[in-house]
Amino acid sequence: MAESLVYCYAVTDAAHDLGDLRGLDDAPVLVRFLGGVHAALSRHRDLVLGASTDQLLRCAAVTDSAMEHGSAVPLRFGTLMEEDQLAALLAQRAEELRADLHFVRGRVEVGLRVTSASTEDPATVGSPGRMPRGDPAPQPGDGREHMRRLQRRERESTSASELAADRCHERLAQHAPTHRLWRRPREGVLLTAAYLVERAQVDELAAVVDELERHETTVRLALTGPWAPYSFVGGIDR
């Protein structure tokens, strides 16, 4: 049976194959000119996609390899179809994809996650099992007042953490004018952000985060990456 399906990992400006790289199901990764752009892809008779850790890592490895050979625009996980269908989709977006390749050339994405330090140390905001530092022990009969005091301290702590998170983002944004910001993306996270920077700037941002961690004691910072610029290009899904 012919390998009628292709899985497309990324669009790239590399006009040659990416060495002996293997993609999903250990299939060889090829670079083919389709729809006016070069696509990093692999051929399959059938392919079961489950977004497993192994599949996600293999897709990321292909995109990273393409970036080492030039510029790359990663495509959404699950871009599996007939080759003619892929060529038609790429042709529809060819001009935008080439503009994206130019936009991200030489750049990578670095991520920031900011959480409240109080979520790691309940004593900073109070909890049923521990008294907040500095508060007097509650007296019999004043339980509701004690709970109000705890809630007030928690609100104040949250407000301070949110302001600190904003300061951290603003500081990093000075080094990366092109960025994306998500506030409260999920429970326990104050904000996440993505920054598009030159490869040479990655260590610079890491140094800024190290400095911020020494001064912003109400939050915890986690810098991730560098990654392919997933947050700054739309692939063929726009």
- Main sheet, how many strands, which sense, barrel? 5 strands, antiparallel
Q: What would the average pLDDT be, to the nearest integer? A: 84
Q: Count all strands and give the number.
A: 9
- CATH topology assignment of the largest domain: Alpha-Beta Plaits
Topology as a string of helices (H) and strands (E): EEEHEEHEHEEHE
CATH class of the largest domain: Alpha Beta
Helix content: 25-40%
- List low-confidence stretches: 120-135
Number of helical regions: 4
Q: How would you describe the shape?
A: elongated
Structural class: alpha+beta
What would you report as the Rg, rounded to the nearest angstrom?
24 Å
- CATH architecture field of the largest domain: 2-Layer Sandwich
Please tell me the total number of domains: 2
Keywords:
238 residues, alpha+beta, Alpha-Beta Plaits, 2 domains, five-stranded antiparallel sheet
